[in-house]
Each structure stands twice: as structure tokens, then as C-alpha cells.
Design goal:
The chain is globular and about 75 Å long. It has three domains: 44 residues; 57 residues; 106 residues, no CATH class. The chain has 217 residues and is mainly alpha-helical. The protein is 46% helix and 8% strand. It binds zinc ion (ZN).
């Protein structure tokens, strides 16, 4: 079989075309003011890592539904259970579509700082802190983040032994030293709302009987 017939079947270009392609490439380089003497180094492909491709940080519909169901805070295990691979999670984190909120837990960027801090202590906002968040959600009241200056009331399951100290959280997450929270221990209350705050009904009941509030008045 001749060289010409190989070229027609696409298995090997004839020498004349190779030479033409090379001369076109060198011509293009000269057009950009570069000499042909250093072409070999300039044509070498770079291996520098430029990060993941754009657009891959968009959250998939099942992830958005999971976030919606839990108030924007989800665990690594829950993400894995709906099929999110470690690589996808890495991309979500890279593009800040999900942010670290606690070890093994992630949140949507829209989750307010007060809810992140409460979750780092061990549960959702409770009592008057939850009521403040519900007021913001309903369209009245100040931004929930302004109440970080006050001790947060949070709800922790009854079987939890202890909560991390404010100093530990400040050191671990690089945040300003928070005030010690007021803890409402109740597994039922913990499950009443979502992971940002207990339900409004429960928050009202907690505020009505909160020992800390009685002591402060
Ligand atoms: Zn309280």
C-alpha cells in the first residue's frame, strides 16, 4: 500500500502535509515576534494546576432539596447518601456553594452566622434566639447576625454530654470569641424545627420558661 492510500484512510498524513503544518506553526510564531530557535520550549505543554473548571460548583437539584429540607445545614453522610461523590463535594467547597460549618457538616452560604455558631455549639437556635430568626424570616426584625453580641440560646439533644467551649470554637474556626451560650437540653425540641432554629411554637414555650431570662429580669 502506498503512502498516499494511507493518508486517504486517515491513518498517517503524507510527509508533504507534515512539512506544511510545521511551516505554518513556525510562521505563526514569527508573526508574534518570536524566533524559531526557542520554539521547542514554548510549545511544551504546561502542567500547572488551574483548579477545577468553571461552572462545576453549581449545586445539583437533590442537594438543593436536601438543604431546603434541613434549613441549609447538611452532613457529609447525608450528601453521600444522595449520591454526592467526594470529588463533587470538593468542587462545591471550592466554589463556596457549600461551606464548612462543623466537622462533617456543611451549610449553604445563605445560612446566617448565628445559626452556624449555634450548630457549632451543638444544635439549632432556641428560645429568644430562635424567635429573632423567625422574625427575620417573616420579614420583620433586624438581621439575625446582629444578635451575635448577645448570648445565644441553643437547643442540644438531652443525650449530648457536653458542648464545646467558646475558646475552642474561636480557635478551631478562626472566629471572634463568642459568648457562652444558654443551653436548652431537649431532644424533642431539637427536632421540632430545622437546623437553623427550633419551631416557633417550641421557641415561644422555651422563652416562657427560660430560667436564664427570668434571672436577667
Ligand atoms: Zn432561653
Amino acid at each position: 500500500m502506498s503512502t498516499t492510500s494511507l493518508c486517504m484512510h486517515g491513518t498517517a498524513p503524507p510527509p508533504c502535509q507534515i512539512g506544511r503544518a510545521k511551516s505554518l506553526r513556525l510562521s505563526a510564531l514569527r508573526h508574534h515576534g518570536r524566533s524559531a530557535s526557542n520554539t521547542s520550549g514554548m510549545l511544551r505543554p504546561t502542567r500547572r494546576y488551574a483548579g477545577p473548571p468553571h461552572g462545576t460548583g453549581n449545586l445539583a437539584a437533590p442537594v438543593l432539596q436536601l438543604l431546603e429540607r434541613h434549613g441549609g445545614i447538611v452532613s457529609t453522610r447525608e450528601l453521600r447518601d444522595i449520591g454526592v461523590q467526594p470529588t463533587s463535594l470538593e468542587l462545591y467547597r471550592h466554589y463556596y456553594s457549600l461551606q464548612a460549618v462543623r466537622q462533617g457538616w456543611h451549610c449553604a452560604p445563605t445560612v446566617p452566622q448565628v445559626s452556624r455558631l449555634a450548630w457549632r455549639f451543638g444544635g439549632p437556635l432556641a428560645c429568644i434566639s430562635a424567635l429573632a430568626l423567625h422574625a427575620v424570616r417573616d420579614g420583620y426584625g433586624e438581621s439575625a447576625d446582629t444578635s451575635v453580641a448577645q448570648p445565644l440560646h441553643i437547643c442540644v439533644p438531652s443525650n449530648r454530654d457536653l458542648v464545646p467551649s467558646p475558646a475552642l470554637l474561636a480557635r478551631r474556626w478562626g472566629i471572634e470569641l463568642p459568648l457562652p451560650p444558654v443551653i436548652h437540653w431537649s431532644t424533642a425540641d431539637y427536632r421540632s424545627g430545622d437546623r437553623r432554629a427550633v419551631s416557633r411554637v417550641v421557641a415561644l414555650r422555651q422563652a416562657d420558661s427560660c430560667v436564664s431570662l427570668r434571672l436577667s429580669t
